[in-house]
Amino acid sequence: MRIALAGLATSHPYTDARTLARHAELVVWEPDPERLRRFAEEHPTAKVATGLDEVLAGELDGVVLTVPNPEVPEALGRVLETGVPCFVNKPAAATRAQLDALRRLPVHERVLSASVLRFAPAFAGVRADLEDVSSVRATVRHDVGMWADGYNAWQDTPGEGGGTMVTMGIHGVELLVALLGPDVRLVGAAGARRHYRTLRSEDTGVLALRWGSGIVGTVEILGVSEGNSYTVTLHGRHGSESVVIESGPDPVQGLGYAGTMEAFLGMVRGGPSPVPWEQTLAILEVLVSAREQAATG
């Protein structure tokens, strides 16, 4: 089995590769020499390609795509031409133009893009009784101080990577859509810089959502936090139920990185994506709308 890691634009593909290396021969492409050097040190047997064309010209069983958001539509379009399964590291779009470009692509059933938290063991067995649930809340505690000194500035730039509202907000929206479905719309969003004053985006945000069923929900984004954790709370007539996702002793397992790669390998073996593209587009629509509203609020 040969798996390509096309781009190393965030930390995720480095983590993905640790799982994939146990199953497949790795091919890697990344234009930034320092990022590529770090990867090659950990995976010295990986074949290094000089460009995306070279990656896609070889025999592949799957592609993990991680390029800056403005480059995703074009790069994904080229991967789709090969017909091989593809996992797009989150978020697949961060602006209206990027999302519109994604909608125009001929995405097939073996394309997956999701927050890894969807596949976290603590969340895997959670189900929502839609007849009982009246409201939901997702709280995302994920520190964004790494961006305060300019690291990966494109991620923190609202018009490129979406900033905290999109890049961290996806974790909460993803979990709620996984439970309640894609018939959801944004009804309000706001963000603020409370601590990291040098950010291009916000370090704190809130989204208000409404499902077609009448269920309402909120996503709280706390980008100033001593630790990372993710909580989903379901409120119903008989009380409230919460599930907390934390890294635990093995973050690759606890946060769902391993589960995500197992889902991707399931596509490589011939299965469809476990996350319908309709859900992914609904999640991205909420996030892009939040980004637009927060930018003008």
Automatic annotation (TrEMBL):
The keyword Iron does not apply. InterPro entries: Gfo/Idh/MocA_oxidrdct_glycsds, GFO_IDH_MocA-like_dom, NAD(P)-bd_dom_sf. The keyword Oxidoreductase applies. Keywords: Oxidoreductase. Residues 132-240 form the GFO/IDH/MocA-like oxidoreductase domain. Signal peptide: none annotated. Transmembrane segments: none annotated. Pfam families: GFO_IDH_MocA_C3. This is Gfo/Idh/MocA family protein. It comes from Nonomuraea spiralis. The lineage of its organism: Bacteria, Bacillati, Actinomycetota, Actinomycetes, Streptosporangiales.
